[in-house]
């Protein structure tokens, strides 16, 4: 069974020989730097792939090839600090509009390499796009964005209308080269206490644009996920109404309860939920975390993976122990 066949069968709740082994969020640069000091050898020859993708293969992980196509460009003004606004009014937005939504943003040579790996079954390919919470926040700034739902509704709709049209164009451009196996809308609209907006605001400012993009994606046979940090339990039904099929990363530290989500949404797809905070604690703690996840792993439609980037506090030795356990439990989940 190829990596790609395995992914699709699992997402269809069908029997597989083992679950996929993914490091969907790759690694922090600080983590990689620490591991290099501890003896990790980064592949020098990439064979057409980014070095960290080759590193996944070297470590025994399955190959997942992601392209994130943002609505901004190198010409888009930079915020004064993280979370600061780039635009504060419709006039500001109109002024920087020529730097947004590039006509042809896809990296064709890279996607052709992805297509080759996908066709062989070696890799799954996924596309990430700025979602209708994420996109306006990048432009308006973290705090002003939340006020804009009330103070600048016309600007919010203008941004999301333009973003929606852009994303639809990007989807077609990507699919001319390779049809992704799944995709994620980057949103990050929840924190430890739940979603940052109400269901009413979701329905007014986000749902209409999902209702345009999601059917297009499904027409291409692309599984549609949302990438949102924090506690997404309250918002998950909203996404489900929008046609979203899955979610990641299911952060354990935010209080996400995967077993409860699976009971409430039995056909929803999940990726992540392995608590990264246990990884520095050694084999016993890491094994206990896999045991916690095993009941849902056995049900299908769920790929266990680190619930965000592997942090710098995880030693190379402990990461190798994690990988050993990962391989063990992805097979154990498929035992009769």
How can the largest sheet be summarized?
A: 7 strands, parallel
Shape: globular
> How are helices and strands ordered from N to C?
HHHEHHEHHHEEEHHEHEHEHEH
Report the end-to-end length measured between terminal Cα atoms: 18 Å
Q: Please report which band the strand proportion falls in: under 5%, 5-15%, 15-25%, 25-35%, 35-45% or over 45%.
A: 5-15%
Oligomeric status:
single chain
In DSSP terms (H or I, runs of 4 or more residues), the helix count works out at 14
Radius of gyration: 20 Å
Précis, in short:
With about 325 residues, this protein is of the alpha/beta class.
Can you describe this structure?
Helix 12 links the parallel strand 7 and strand 8 (269-274). The chain contains 14 helices and 9 strands. The strands form 2 sheets. The chain has a 7-stranded parallel β-sheet. Strands 4-5 form a two-stranded antiparallel ribbon. With 336 residues, the chain is α/β, with parallel strands linked by helices. The protein is globular and about 55 Å long.
What attributes characterize this protein structure?
9 strands, two-stranded antiparallel ribbon, 45% helix, 14 helices, alpha/beta, 7-stranded parallel sheet
Lay out the secondary structure.
Layout: H1 3-11, H2 29-37, H3 51-59, E1 63-69, H4 90-96, H5 108-119, E2 123-130, H6 134-140, H7 142-151, H8 153-175, E3 182-186, E4 190-191, E5 194-195, H9 199-205, H10 207-219, E6 223-228, H11 236-241, E7 246-249, H12 258-264, E8 269-274, H13 283-297, E9 302-306, H14 316-332
Parallel strand pairs: 1-2, 2-3, 3-6, 6-7, 7-8, 8-9
Antiparallel strand pairs: 4-5
Helix pairs in contact: 6-7, 8-10, 13-14
């Amino acid at each position: 069974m190829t990596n790609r066949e395995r992914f699709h069968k699992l997402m269809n709740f069908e029997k597989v020989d083992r679950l996929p082994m993914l490091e969907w969020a790759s690694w922090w640069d600080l983590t990689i730097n620490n591991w290099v000091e501890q003896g990790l050898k980064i592949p020098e020859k990439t064979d057409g792939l980014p070095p960290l993708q080759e590193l996944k293969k070297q470590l025994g992980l399955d190959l997942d090839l992601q392209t994130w196509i943002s609505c901004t460009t190198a010409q888009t003004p930079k915020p004064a600090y993280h979370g600061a606004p780039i635009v504060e009014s419709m006039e500001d937005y109109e002024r920087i509009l020529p730097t947004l939504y590039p006509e042809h943003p896809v990296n064709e040579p890279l996607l052709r390499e992805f297509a080759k790996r996908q066709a062989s079954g070696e890799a799954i390919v996924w596309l990430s796009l700025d979602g209708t919470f994420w996109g306006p926040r990048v432009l308006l700034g973290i705090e002003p964005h939340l006020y804009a739902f009330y103070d600048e509704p016309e600007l919010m709709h203008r941004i999301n209308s333009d973003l929606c049209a852009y994303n639809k164009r990007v989807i077609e451009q990507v699919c001319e080269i390779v049809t992704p196996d799944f995709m994620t809308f980057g949103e990050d609209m929840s924190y430890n206490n739940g979603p940052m907006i109400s269901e009413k605001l979701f329905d007014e400012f986000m749902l209409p644009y999902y209702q345009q993009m999601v059917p297009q994606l499904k027409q291409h046979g692309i599984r549609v996920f949302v990438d949102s940090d924090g506690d997404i339990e309250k918002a998950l039904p909203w996404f489900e109404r929008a046609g979203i099929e899955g979610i990641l990363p299911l952060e354990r530290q935010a209080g996400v309860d995967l077993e409860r989500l699976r009971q409430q949404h039995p056909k929803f797809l999940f990726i992540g939920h392995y608590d990264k905070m246990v990884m520095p604690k050694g084999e016993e703690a890491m094994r206990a975390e896999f045991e916690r996840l095993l009941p849902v792993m056995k049900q299908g439609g769920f790929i266990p993976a680190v619930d965000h980037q592997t942090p710098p506090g995880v030693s190379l030795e402990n990461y190798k122990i994690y990988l050993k356990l990962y391989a063990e439990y992805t097979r154990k989940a498929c035992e009769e």
